[in-house]
TrEMBL record:
One of its GO terms (molecular function) is oxidoreductase activity. Belongs to the multicopper oxidase family. CDD domains: CuRO_2_AAO_like_1. Coiled coil: none annotated. InterPro entries: Cu-oxidase-like_N, Cu-oxidase_2nd, Cu-oxidase_C, Cu-oxidase_fam, Cupredoxin, CuRO_2_AO-like. It comes from Panicum miliaceum (Proso millet). This is Monocopper oxidase-like protein SKS1. It comes from the Eukaryota. Residues 38-151, 167-289, 388-521 form the Plastocyanin-like domain.
Length: 553
């Protein structure tokens, strides 16, 4: 390791920990150093060659395997011919939106250069994933799994499984990203995807080997472009145990819906009669024609997989009903008695007894703006600024973004804008997502998880609070909003920074369905490092922040 890079790592680590005194006391926290090379490759998972993005030549990329409170140092080398960023879907990046890896917080890594992310998996456990965040890069791959394991002193609420598998599922297009952009830029919707991949492989190409009588943890994430998926294993029950860092009330399912950007963990026991193979089936929801991704679940010692199509895939066309899907979502609840990252029970935070400071109502829609079809939030279609909003806020720049109310404005004409909602640190806020469109939406909030308190059909009103789950609602970071319906979440704003609130459908985000929340104490003073870390010494500068005057600030 060269001296210059070592100096950057040491300085960044001291910033992350707050002071050299804290660094000395940091012996119990493990530091993980990784070098990842981002490059193009050609793959043909569905028989049609196309250019993809790989991490270290792999799709999916390597596992980021952490334990609670580990500090990750990930040096990303960009060998693409265009700027690149990675974001860490579901990790809360405590006090550290500087390393969130989206266009509103970070300057992109230029072609041929590198940048080191440094962040701590502070007080977290669970199953997550990383992916590219610029444009439609994520539709070309570049994703990989993240595990944050419990510290040995914290018990998990189930017997230790014999082994674990990361299962990254998603829809796939044979067209390349440039062609996808052409569809969207011309005001057209993307066609139906060409298929479903499981760990980057097409139907019947992926294998998972089980030993009879043993139990396995499968960490499943939907990393696709825009399609909700049904996940199941023929003849086996799925015991849901975790969603995006929260241990769930344990319940068996025959199949589970996994919407774009969502992650979950299930336990599966190899308790069926041995035969050459069972099928892991991932099928599309709410689109036609129905698509299937299939992997082989092999029982050790029972021979190789069946020939493709040797056994029928059960007909689950009834699963395409939105009512059924919402009912399943309501059964996913928090385990109140177990600990997670800390020993105190998950249910010790009585969110239902806290007075709400404010309600944000975010209504997604579509509109023609400047002769182009755009996606909007409260009438504003997000325009990505040349200067990251976090840098603009740090350097008190004007004219980079506009602050909006967080409520629909009756007289507002649809328009482009770089919109930010101001929110006060430590407020307890309700966010209502209202979807008047005929397609399902998924929303993700960086920097936080939230309690999914309620869902319902039609238009939300304050009276809907009487239907909320105020006891054991699931606590996660990505939530679905059904067509002509609403979803209400409750969030404690205990993480200062500039945080991206976005659609997890890549096409809708590309067309402007995102916004940022600036969580601060409302003071012009430099934040206390105990609340928000200072700008890291290796921060890239771009846009208006690239001037020599600011660069020396």
């Amino acid at each position: 390791m060269d001296a210059e890079r070592l100096a950057v790592i040491l300085a960044t680590t001291l910033v992350l920990l707050g002071s050299s005194k804290h660094y000395t006391a940091d012996a119990e926290n493990r530091h993980v150093f990784l070098d990842w090379e981002v490059s193009y490759a050609v793959r043909s998972p569905l028989g049609v060659a196309r250019r993809v993005i790989t991490i270290d030549g792999r799709l999916p990329g390597p596992l980021l395997n952490l334990t609670t409170n580990d500090v990750a140092h990930i040096n990303v080398v960009n060998t693409l011919d265009e700027p690149f960023l990675l974001t860490w879907n579901g990790l809360q990046m405590r006090r550290n939106s500087w390393n969130d890896g989206v266009a509103g917080t970070n300057c992109a890594i230029p072609p041929g250069e590198n940048w080191t992310y440094v962040f701590q998996a502070k007080d977290e456990v669970g199953s997550f994933f990383y992916r590219p965040s610029l444009g439609l890069h994520a539709a070309a791959g570049g994703h990989g799994p993240i595990r944050v394991n419990n510290r040995p002193v914290i018990a998990v609420p189930f017997a230790q499984p014999n082994s674990e598998f990361d299962v990254l599922i998603g829809d796939w297009y044979n067209m390349d990203v440039k062609e996808m952009k052409g569809y969207l830029d011309r005001g057209r919707d993307l066609p139906s995807p060409d298929g479903i991949l499981i760990n980057g492989l097409g139907p019947y190409a992926a294998d998972f080997t089980f030993k009879p009588g043993r139990t396995y943890r499968l960490r499943v994430s939907n990393v696709g472009t825009r399609t909700s998926l049904s996940f199941r294993i023929q003849g086996h029950k799925l015991l849901l145990v975790e969603t995006e860092g929260t241990y769930t009330l344990q319940k068996h399912y025959a199949s589970l819906d996994v919407h774009p950007g969502q992650s979950l963990s299930v336990l599966v026991t190899a308790d069926q009669p041995p035969k050459p193979s069972y099928y892991m089936v991932v099928s599309s929801l709410f689109v036609e024609p129905e698509l299937f991704g299939v992997a082989n679940v092999l029982y050790a010692g029972s021979g190789g997989p069946q020939p493709p199509g040797a056994a029928p895939l059960e007909d689950l066309s009834s699963h395409n009903g939105y009512n059924r899907s919402m009912e399943q979502a309501r059964t996913v609840r928090m385990n109140l008695t177990c600990g997670a990252a800390r020993p105190n029970p998950q249910g010790s935070f009585h969110y239902g007894q806290i007075n709400m400071s404010r309600t944000l109502l975010l209504r997604n829609d579509e509109a023609g703006i400047g002769g182009r079809r755009r996606c909007t939030v409260n009438g504003v279609s997000f325009a990505v600024a040349a200067t990251p909003l976090k840098l603009a806020d740090h350097f008190d720049m004007v004219g980079v973004f506009v602050v909006i109310s967080g409520r629909p404005e009756k007289r507002r004409q649809p328009s482009l804008g770089t919109a930010v909602i101001d929110a006060r640190y430590r407020d307890f806020v309700q966010i209502v997502f209202e979807n008047r469109l005929p397609s399902l939406q998924t929303w993700h909030l960086d920097g936080y998880s939230f309690f999914v308190a309620g869902m319902g059909w039609g238009t939300w009103s304050p009276d809907a609070r009487s239907t909320y789950n105020l006891v054991d609602a699931i606590y996660r970071s990505t939530v679905q909003v059904y067509p002509s319906a609403w979803t209400a979440v409750l969030v404690s704003l205990d993480n200062e920074g500039m945080w991206n609130l976005r659609s997890q459908s890549l096409d809708r985000r590309y067309l402007g369905q995102e916004i940022y929340m600036r969580v601060s104490q409302g003071s012009s003073e430099v934040p206390d490092p105990r609340d928000e870390l200072p700008m890291p010494p290796n921060a890239l500068l771009c846009g208006k922040a690239k001037s020599s005057k600011i660069g020396q600030a």
